[in-house]
């Protein structure tokens, strides 16, 4: 079953993006090297495998280069992580990150999880058996050695279980750390005072897998007659990020018995003819470091104006009035790691 009932109750994301703050590009060791023969800029994504010892052996991923890619100009990289039960190819099709209409600058890689799920899902193997974080780290090493990657502009984004795992993949094991794990008993904590850790969430008000308010009692994704367990409310998740980033404003707030502080956003506005509510926080003088988008009539899916097929469209509830992928490109362009992070 796609998505299933095994979404992590720790980090609940329909769409997740990690970023950081502007700096001059720093190129990887792939500068001047020829890309793999089967990878032609502008063509369809190519299938590759990578041996990851700690990451459970041979792993698969799709890789796409835009027609504008050259080996003499560093390009930013997006790691796009699929949902539980979804394939890397499906993630590429849904996000359209390989489409020049959506993406004109970024190398895009679509890793694939073992049995199509990622660490953080309750059905995933223990990290001592399959460590997806190590796989992502090995993948970055491989890409940076063969492609001309701007190592200050590596981003993770994901859908559902992939969105939750993006917190992990950009953290403890990734050499260009843009965040930290929410899944470990002793999470890997970056120096929050050195720089904010921008984060973005998009969630639908009609999500039938992970309720915005955390109350999933009316859902039975496994169809076993047992209501799905409650999950962390999205406002609480956003407020936790705001607190970690030292964002201004704090308010006492309770939803589904989860007390939270700092839930009061610095700014709230409506977009797309009032179909999308935007809540944003300013942190250490940086505006819009933490952003939450609450989308009217969106179910559990990736927002786009293009119709999907089968269960993906059933869960999403139909096309939306905007394309999240195109929108994200503008947001990502604002952020990069400070140069010291690449040393």
TrEMBL record:
GO terms for biological process: xylan catabolic process. Transmembrane segments: none annotated. Keywords: Carbohydrate metabolism, Hydrolase, Polysaccharide degradation, Secreted, Signal, Xylan degradation. It catalyses: feruloyl-polysaccharide + H2O = ferulate + polysaccharide. SUPFAM superfamilies: alpha/beta-Hydrolases. GO terms for molecular function: feruloyl esterase activity. GO terms for cellular component: extracellular region. The keyword Nucleotide-binding does not apply. It comes from the Eukaryota. Its EC number is 3.1.1.73. InterPro entries: AB_hydrolase_fold (IPR029058), FaeB/C/D (IPR043595). This is feruloyl esterase.
